[in-house]
Specification:
Layout lengths: L1 E6 L5 E7 L7 E6 L10 H9 L2 E6 L21 H17 L5 E6 L1 H4 L10 E7 L13 H20 L1 E2 L10 E2 H11 L6 H8 L11 E6 L9 H6 L7 E6 L24 H9 L1
Parallel strand pairs: 3-4, 3-5, 5-6, 6-9, 9-10
Antiparallel strand pairs: 1-2, 2-4, 7-8
Helix pairs in contact: 4-5
Length: about 280
């Protein structure tokens, strides 16, 4: 895949990877990452999609991977800017620079949660939401809910006090996060309505209600974050989008644990990736 840079509306440069198939071009897919996950995590799945005839773009949000500064303590960015600025920059690049439209937006977790911030969603044909869920800690099963409670009330604030940013690599939760992102994410996850209360402050309009692109929400049965309660609650953020919710029973397809991020791992190429292809092509 070709390394490129995409410039957001505020001038911030985002690191991205882009590739097109040589033959049988069938469409375009953006893979929009989960919180704290670098674009390289999705490369194997991206190459699988390219082999199926799709042009694919991967990118890092500001503050993550190739889009992060050398010192996160110098960064003042907020998580909502992944939607208001970064996602819009990626879509604009594909439409204006590559001349593409009817784009499939495959969002993993937060990568689907924030699509309501897209200013020109008419260029999106559909959204495939993977393990995207309302992140309120109290809606997670025992005992994980109390571990997440510890993260937000003790571990997270302590990280910021000691290091000046969220040192998520120390607890195995993906990439490190700038302090403002940690504080905003914390505020969302301690609220039963997640980031709904903050939308009016950020957008000053009910933009998510104006999002009418079809969404198919897929979640794995062994993911404690995306569960029977949190996935439907997240979909309520998009009341005017045609929606389908699909629960993927992991035990029917593999003996391995899939969880929140595992579905994109290469070992599931033969048993789970074809299921995702069915959703993409439907």
């Amino acid at each position: 895949m070709k390394n490129i840079f995409i410039t957001a509306s505020d001038g911030y440069r985002l690191s991205a990877l882009y590739a097109s198939p040589v033959y049988k071009k069938r469409g375009t897919i953006v893979i929009s990452s989960a919180t704290g996950i670098k674009k390289e995590f999705y490369i194997n799945f991206a190459m699988f999609l390219i082999g199926q005839g799709y042009t694919v773009l991967l990118y890092d949000y500001r503050g993550i991977g190739g889009s992060a500064p050398d010192d996160l303590r110098t960064m003042d960015a907020y998580m909502h800017e992944w939607g208001t600025k970064d996602m819009n920059a990626v879509l604009k690049y594909l439409v204006e620079e590559q001349g593409l439209t009817c784009i499939i937006w495959l969002g993993h977790s937060v990568g689907a949660q924030l699509v309501g911030f897209l200013e020109n969603p008419e260029h999106i044909s559909k959204v495939i939401s993977i393990n995207s869920a309302l992140g309120y800690w109290g809606y997670f099963p025992f005992p994980m809910k109390w571990l997440i409670w510890m993260l937000w009330y003790f571990i997270g604030p302590l990280m910021i006090k000691i290091y000046g940013y969220g040192v998520m690599t120390k607890i195995g939760w993906g990439e490190n996060l700038p302090r403002n992102m940690m504080w905003e994410w914390r505020a969302w996850c301690l609220n039963k309505s997640y980031f709904k209360d903050s939308l009016n402050k950020i957008l000053r309009s009910d933009q998510f209600c104006q999002f009418t692109i079809p969404i198919t929400a897929v979640y794995t049965s062994d993911d404690f974050i995306a569960n029977d309660k949190t996935v439907p609650l997240m979909m309520k953020f998009f009341p005017n989008s045609p929606q389908t919710i699909l629960k993927l029973s992991v035990k029917e397809h593999t003996k391995d644990k899939v969880g929140h991020t595992g579905i994109f791992r290469k070992k599931f190429r033969a048993n789970l990736w074809p299921l995702l292809m069915e959703v993409i092509e439907k």
